[in-house]
Amino acid sequence: MSLLLCWKNAQNEYGVCVCCFLQADPIRVLVTGAAGQIAYSLLYSIAKGDVFGKDQPIILVLLDISPMLPVLDGVVMELQDCALPLLREVIPTDKVEVGFKDLDAAILVGSMPRKEGMERKDLLKANVAIFKTQGAALEKYAKKTVRVLVVGNPANTNCLIASKSAPSIPKENFSCLTRLDHNRARSQVAMRCGVPADAVKNVIIWGNHSSTQYPDVHHAMVNVHGKEVEAYDAVKDDSWLKGDFISTVQLRGAAVIKARKLSSAMSAAKAICDHMRDWWFGTLDGEFMSMGVYAGGNSYGIPEDLIYSFPVHIKNKSWNIHDGLPVNDFSRAKMDATAAELVEERDTALSFLSQ
Amino acid sequence: MSAEPVRVLVTGAAGQIAYSLLFGIAKGDVFGKDQPITLILLDITPMLPVLGGVVMELQDCALPLLREVIPTDKEEVAFKDLDAAILVGSMPRREGMERKDLLKANVAIFKSQGAALEKYAKKTVKVLVVGNPANTNCLIAAKSAPSIPKENFSCLTRLDHNRARSQVAMRCGVPATQVKNVIIWGNHSSTQYPDVHHCKVNMAGSDLACFDAVKDDDWLKGAFISTVQQRGAAVIAARKLSSAMSAAKAICDHMRDIWSGTPEGEFVSMGVYSSSNSYGVAEDLIYSFPVHIKDKQWKIVDGLAINEFSRGKMDATAAELVEERDTAVTFLSA
């Protein structure tokens, strides 16, 4: 069942010019795990135009496993009831050949969650199977220009597997989400300095979206009363910045789960929107964002065949690692530790891939 | 951005609807892209740890307009100096609970919250009641806040309004925004009356009367009405949870329209105080009408022709509201 809409008219209540002569072609956007919590917080923002632009119509493709199709129908009903002008069509499905067809963007939220008694190895094995299949589906059905954001954990390794399973899609088109950690880091510094979160720029999340991630503010700037101040000078508490600040950001996900009894869907959805929107429209001059990207050719001494979170600029839907940042001993050790974890994850995952 | 922050309260703040709603508010979708916000989150004491998690997430969203987030279980903190209050929290129906018991429990809540508005909020506060039974809860709150104008109180029928638009739109093969001036009359319950006699559908560049665009009078007077009336239950049956996403969107639409007004020639549906209405609806109710909004004031759209079919349905939903009110008021004085 799909919802088909078409129109020809002048400005609507959202100030959107919907005259069909000027209307952009719709883009096809896939969200997997579409019946789940994170998707529920995410889909509305996508359909509203917050990610791909206020004049960009969207065909939203929702993929989940067969047992979730009735729930997915409820989600489709709600999207209809939201009466959103940009939403051209909503396609719920459990089939990869429908889900991945002609995609412009794919947000892979769905993954195998950790069950009680499950070893890390088992989790990795189950997810390799999923992301191998989805990578192959991207290869077979999606546009070669597709941009892929992997959210489902373990995000970095899942992303690498998907990319390896889609050899004719550029590795640069694959990324994983560390923007949530990035936003958390910004917010912690902002609260410490008593400024709004957007007054804090250029924090960096290095490495794995896991507890080994390294939130680094050596190059961050805080706008205090109109002046740009280095984060270490603005905060004036080096031990906090090298200690509790880091562990707070690393463990924030667990803290939210402990309080809510559910994981952080709202803030994850927001980070996903930030990541995709910046990929689509670019980053501002002088600012960089954190993204898990292919480490090939990096100048920071990180092993190459990984998806590793770096500071990046984005322009024309392409990212570039921000090079040349000085890395002190403290940072070096942390960057290496998270790389080592990723190397181990990769090697375990690859052994499953070749089976 | 130097505007004074607005103080906005959301009750039931640890719950499902609030979880879908708070982000939209904090982002600027309701009160404006340059309007900083102090967000106050009220819930019952057992929910304070969960509320703590919600606060963490709002911080982690790194939203520039969100000046402050205040989680609380105390009315004197929650209702202080409010500019806007969205009362989502209410007593849910439990198994075995009679309608009368549900009404009694909610009268207690909304009497207390109305009194808190009276005591602590600005007199200019705009109050949107979402928690069900929304119309009657709204009336009780208004009656418990006698020095706040009754016009400042409203209840949510915008979700039903959006659902009605969307059903007509899908039938005509146009986006929902091409469907204007549907009306939801009456109670936010299964007696609501979705009325498209004055609705216009923009098709191929011109505005058509809805009945002409749809070309299926039986559907518009039959299954269309029941689909909209029962949509909530259909979503629950599918999701196993109620419609938080679309409810949150409707809440944002309702508050945004109060704050910034409705476009020329368009009206929206709101549950508002019925006294001095020109449609023969019983007075002293909160009843959903078609309204225009300008300068944060709503006005019922007068002079729409009402045929027998509509009259019957408008009266039926009014009768239900009169009964609810009379039961509720007995509890108020108890």
Automatic annotation (TrEMBL), chain A:
It comes from Hucho hucho (huchen). Catalyzes the reduction of aromatic alpha-keto acids in the presence of NADH. Plays essential roles in the malate-aspartate shuttle and the tricarboxylic acid cycle, important in mitochondrial NADH supply for oxidative phosphorylation. Catalyzes the reduction of 2-oxoglutarate to 2-hydroxyglutarate, leading to elevated reactive oxygen species (ROS). One of its GO terms (molecular function) is L-malate dehydrogenase (NAD+) activity. Residues 178-352 form the Lactate/malate dehydrogenase C-terminal domain. Substrate binds at residues 114, 120, 153, 184. It catalyses: (S)-malate + NAD(+) = oxaloacetate + NADH + H(+); (S)-2-hydroxyglutarate + NAD(+) = 2-oxoglutarate + NADH + H(+). It is an enzyme of class 1 (oxidoreductase). NAD(+) binds at residues 64, 127, 151-153. PROSITE patterns: MDH. InterPro entries: L-lactate/malate_DH (IPR001557), Lactate/malate_DH_C (IPR022383), Lactate/malate_DH_N (IPR001236), Lactate_DH/Glyco_Ohase_4_C (IPR015955), Malate_DH_AS (IPR001252), Malate_DH_NAD-dep_euk (IPR011274), Malate_DH_type2 (IPR010945), NAD(P)-bd_dom_sf (IPR036291). Gene3D superfamilies: Lactate dehydrogenase/glycoside hydrolase, family 4, C-terminal (3.90.110.10), NAD(P)-binding Rossmann-like Domain (3.40.50.720). Belongs to the LDH/MDH superfamily. MDH type 2 family. The keyword Signal does not apply. Its EC number is 1.1.1.37. The active site is at residue 209. This is Malate dehydrogenase. Keywords: NAD, Oxidoreductase, Tricarboxylic acid cycle. GO terms for biological process: malate metabolic process; tricarboxylic acid cycle. Residues 28-174 form the Lactate/malate dehydrogenase N-terminal domain.
Automatic annotation (TrEMBL), chain B:
It catalyses: (S)-2-hydroxyglutarate + NAD(+) = 2-oxoglutarate + NADH + H(+); (S)-malate + NAD(+) = oxaloacetate + NADH + H(+). GO terms for biological process: malate metabolic process; tricarboxylic acid cycle. The lineage of its organism: Eukaryota, Metazoa, Chordata, Craniata, Vertebrata. It comes from Hucho hucho. Its EC number is 1.1.1.37. Residues 6-153 form the Lactate/malate dehydrogenase N-terminal domain. NAD(+) binds at residues 43, 106, 130-132. It comes from the Eukaryota. This is Malate dehydrogenase. InterPro entries: L-lactate/malate_DH, Lactate/malate_DH_C, Lactate/malate_DH_N, Lactate_DH/Glyco_Ohase_4_C, Malate_DH_AS, Malate_DH_NAD-dep_euk, Malate_DH_type2, NAD(P)-bd_dom_sf. The active site is at 188 (proton acceptor). Catalyzes the reduction of aromatic alpha-keto acids in the presence of NADH. Plays essential roles in the malate-aspartate shuttle and the tricarboxylic acid cycle, important in mitochondrial NADH supply for oxidative phosphorylation. Catalyzes the reduction of 2-oxoglutarate to 2-hydroxyglutarate, leading to elevated reactive oxygen species (ROS). GO terms for molecular function: L-malate dehydrogenase (NAD+) activity. Belongs to the LDH/MDH superfamily. MDH type 2 family. Substrate binds at residues 93, 99, 132, 163. Coiled coil: none annotated. Keywords: NAD, Oxidoreductase, Tricarboxylic acid cycle. It holds the Pfam family Ldh_1_C. It is an enzyme of class 1 (oxidoreductase). Residues 157-331 form the Lactate/malate dehydrogenase C-terminal domain.
